[in-house]
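Researcher: Please translate sequence to structure tokens.
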Amino acid sequence: MASFLNPFPKTVADLLDASIIKRFKEGRGQGYGKHYKPFLTVRDVPSKGRVHRRPSITHGRVVHLLSDLELAAFVLFDWHESVVDIREQFPLNPEKTINIANRTGIKHPAAKGVNQVMTTDLLIDLKMDGKLSTQAISVKYRDDLEDPRVIEKQEIEKRFWEGEQIQWFIFTENEVPHTLIQNIKWLIPHIHSFDLQKSDQMLIFEQVQYAIETYPGDKIANVMKLLDENQNKPIGSHLSYLRHLLAQRAFYWDMNSINHKSLKTSNLMVSEHWLSGEHEYVYAK
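Model: Translation complete:
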């Protein structure tokens, strides 16, 4: 998708200011996984609300997100098991976007008469049923979509991805599943809180499984506290283990409708992969 950057064509260079070309020469907008560099960082542009820099569980790289809504969208895709790569602030070939603008009669984004490189907020690579696919996501607040100029720029972006034969979607606050987001945020910090060997993984898994089956319908925190007391562990030890195992998908629940604060043992289901010992444990990178 970034083939227009390397080698850097003169046709593109002629369209841009030297300061923008410098970003490309720095490797911005190029690479994959942990080696990708976003074209825009939190230092480059004014944001709407807060900006965020956070590590990704998909590839381990620190990502640059320019709004709370971008954070919400990113958290959802980063948690999804089918996602294999996420590239934020991905640059679009300016030669193509300028041609689209000229054809449609839409003014191309520019600053002080200098063409700007358009970007897509999130470019997602997915692997489903053994097949790889890519989706482009534009993250926009609903109020912004009332602005005719924003709509014009969205039209250019949409047509660009149509030309690349890649699906393009708009993500607004209407698409934010708040309970799911809160649950994911509760789990993500614990995915690498332990780095357990296989024998310890199974030992703790079996202890937690036995406890939740022994006390069905009780609050998770209470059952884990009881487990701490029975094993003479500091209070909170097994709750941390449980959050780690939940983040590692050893147990799961309906994260869309049940908030972790009201989670009970009867809500939890056991992973068949962990029961059979055929699970994939995600070690710290």
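Researcher: Any highlights?
Model: The chain has a mean pLDDT of 90.
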